Amino acid sequence: MRPIPDLTPISNALGSAVVKAMPLSVGFGLSGLHVRLADGRELAIKQGVSETPGQLAIEGYMLRQLRALSNLPVPRVHYCDDIMLAMDWIEAGHGGFTAAHQRHLAELLAELHLTPRPYFGFEQDTVIAALSQPNPRSKLWVPFYRDHRLLFLNRLAETRGLLPRGMAARIEKLAARLGDYLTEPDHAALIHGDIWSGNVLAGNGRIAALIDPAIYFAHPEVELAFMTMFGSFGAAFFDAYAALTGFEARDFMAERRDLYLLYPLLVHVLVCSPSYAGDIGRILDKFNA
Prior knowledge:
The protein folds into two domains: 8-88, Phosphorylase Kinase, domain 1; 93-286, Alpha-Beta Complex (Aminoglycoside 3'-phosphotransferase, Chain: A, domain 2). The chain is built from nine helices and twelve strands. The chain has helices spanning 8-14, 55-69, 99-114, 141-159, 167-175, 220-227, 235-245, 249-271, 277-286, and strands spanning 18-24, 31-37, 42-47, 77-80, 84-88, 93-94, 126-128, 131-133, 189-191, 200-203, 206-210, 216-218. The longest helix is centred in the last third of the chain and has 23 residues, at 249-271.
């Protein structure tokens, strides 16, 4: 068991002592705690250092930006620095999403995605999992996605020797043809950036909170593709989202979804297992790359 970190900064910042601390699984080499303060407040705490310097400070920044720029339910950040993040404890569950949960999530994301943003990228770089996300301000979506998402992680995975022989070159070949398949959206939109069942807290037919964001201004389709990766969200979500936004799923599901799945699949190659390269290979085969 890891030793409990010094929580004095939390107590000092919130003006109340920590009276109980219980282990909390958070992943990516970080340690987590569910703590109770003397005044009764409960917090979720992440602590540690990852491969991306200042990851927890960036995560705190992203949570605060989501609260400021959207109506998404997001935990309030009470303290953050480069090695520690303290936020509201949300009493809810992961997974097991009912049709009501999925419809509520559709309402939340439709409002988020329909709000125009001024450019693609963000005002600073962000993170996804333990990896940096470069966010230079860009006027066009397809070159941004190609250069700062797909090719950026492709180079990183190749450098670390995590891709099968020849796969990096095949990804580059497909990246050069992205403009044949992907389209520019009507406007840039803020996205959460990492929506899967583990990052959605649900209860009583409503979404209680979205956690662990990877925000930037993007094409909403990259968000929707990620949500299909593990099958957590289905027809109840997509039908409600389409009714609210006019989104047409047929062409997206047939072609564009796979091209956008290359990004989270590369993330998983880098932070989870090289075995995800098998799914990348199937997409490359589909597009004759």
